[in-house]
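Quick log. Single chain, no ligands specified.
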Amino acid sequence: MSTSLLGPAEIRALAERAGVRPTKTLGQNFVLDAGTVRKIVRQADVGPGERVVEVGPGLGSLTLGLLEADADVVAVEIDPVLARLLPGTVAEHVPGLTVAQADDVDGSPVVVLRDADGRDRLTVVLRDALEVRELPGKPPVALVANLPYNVSVPVLLTFLERFDSLERALVMVQAEVADRLAAPPGSRTYGVPSAKAAWYTHARRTATVGRSVFWPVPNVDSALVRLDRREPPSTTAAREEVFAVVDAAFAQRRKMLRPALASLAGSADAAQAALVAAGVDPQARGERLDIEAFARIAEQLASPAGAGPGGPGTVEP
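-> predicted structure:
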């Protein structure tokens, strides 16, 4: 069955009928261009029958693009007006879908649209994405989303942490954020998002998206980032311990690691000892280290010899 995508006039008419006004508070910028939607789906390598999670579906432009690729979508939407609107919009544009159930999962309202073969094609979950700990139905294998600018990195990292079934992600974010996510160690834009994303994935920026494809038109350009799941570094340190080292290393950019990690280690001398044991120059700066190096440092700090008073054993990451 054919799926029709939304065009600019239809999107504006749909929003007007529903009384929807995009808000900066929720970081809402709706995609008007069907070509951009198909580019996102194509670069995400979405295949027939795959379970895809979409965060912030808005008026449904990308949702319909994913359904056109014959994926099954679980859409997480924080705005109750948009969450109620989406099932009706999809039912109008994808023939043969009917509302199969409306239920609660983990305290969140859920609406399911099912096709004639009994396949759940769209599941809409009304919930703040940062609070989602489980999703109804089969575990998703991909995250594909036009992420709200104001929470893009926290949402991405949260989903990579909580849903290890995710094999890949293709997200549209602010261009500056895309650069940070994909930045290698030593580059000008390398920082906390770069290092933490590298714990879970290999990230690369794939395309720039102009402002004109959005409504309302944002003040910045956007970009697509593809992230493919990788094994985390081999280490005895917990992820939380490694991320605590990353946060401390970048708390004051351009600061040498010895003083930057002093509070976390308990003293500057303890930080130096852990850095030397990890094979890292104490005078180096955090922006020079890859995630494997941060893991080695965390491992040394967590060891009985490396953890002093106020070290990782006592500091909340």
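Confidence is low (pLDDT under 50) at residues 307-317.
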